[in-house]
Automatic annotation (TrEMBL):
Name the UniProt record assigns to this protein: EF-hand domain-containing protein
One cellular component (GO) term of this entry: voltage-gated potassium channel complex
Span of domain EF-hand: 76-111, 112-147, 160-195
Biological source species: Patiria miniata (Bat star)
Gene3D superfamilies associated with the record: EF-hand
CDD domains for this protein: EFh
Stated family: Belongs to the recoverin family.
Top-level taxonomy: Eukaryota, Metazoa, Echinodermata, Eleutherozoa, Asterozoa
Length: 206
């Protein structure tokens, strides 16, 4: 009898949980419709996929790195994935919620050039002090080289990550004070056709 009662209680708990989810979800989806550039249908599809991959509703850094490694099997994407994870994990609690995931994706796939450049600046500004140093830029560029693997190995015509950083830094550090501010970053990127074109690589239609 005790076992049967426990089962009934468990089933009722499950039903209650499902009812809570049903009640919560439309409110959450409607809010995300207003704060992102996705439609309700797109968000519902993404939520279904997100819950399937992450039943707990949260993505930790290790899982995020595993997802990235599937897209870049030719190299080591773990360092770059670490930086992107931090940019998505806006409350820095070590996990990404569906809301954080969708907000980040919205900027990258549907955001304006300005949205994407602001996201990129925050990615490079690793310690969040409002400036990009050579060391921070090198960390990101090196992680991109590592991720691309054989496709980014320097040939006689290519340059090393350090040389790449030096060239970019010289162009962006307009007042030559050794750091790049958000204004310098935005001005430099907007006036560089190569950079503005590369930002459209993220554009997707789901």
């Amino acid at each position: 009898m005790g076992t049967v009662f426990a089962t009934i209680t468990s089933d009722n708990d499950l039903e209650d949980l499902e009812m809570q989810t049903v009640r919560y979800k439309p409110e959450g989806i409607d809010k995300l419709c207003r704060t992102t550039k996705f439609t309700k249908k797109e968000l519902q599809l993404m939520y279904r996929g997100f819950k399937q991959e992450c039943p707990s509703g949260l993505v930790n850094e290790e899982t995020f790195k595993e997802i990235y490694s599937q897209f870049f099997p030719q190299g080591d994407s773990s360092h770059y994935a670490h930086f992107v994870f931090n940019s998505f994990d806006t409350d820095h609690n070590g996990s990404i919620t569906f809301e954080e995931f969708v907000m980040g994706l919205s900027v990258l796939s549907r955001g304006t050039l300005n949205d994407k450049l602001n996201w990129a600046f925050n990615l490079y500004d690793i310690n969040g002090d409002g400036y990009i140093t050579r060391e921070e830029m090198l960390s990101i560029i090196q992680s991109i080289y590592d991720m691309m693997g054989k496709y980014s190995e320097p040939t006689s015509e290519d340059i090393t990550p350090g040389e790449h950083v030096e060239r970019v830094f010289q162009k962006m550090d307009l007042n030559k004070d050794g750091v790049v501010t958000i204004d310098e970053f935005l001005d430099s990127c907007r006036s560089d056709e190569t950079i503005t074109k590369s930002m459209h690589v993220f554009d997707t239609i789901l």
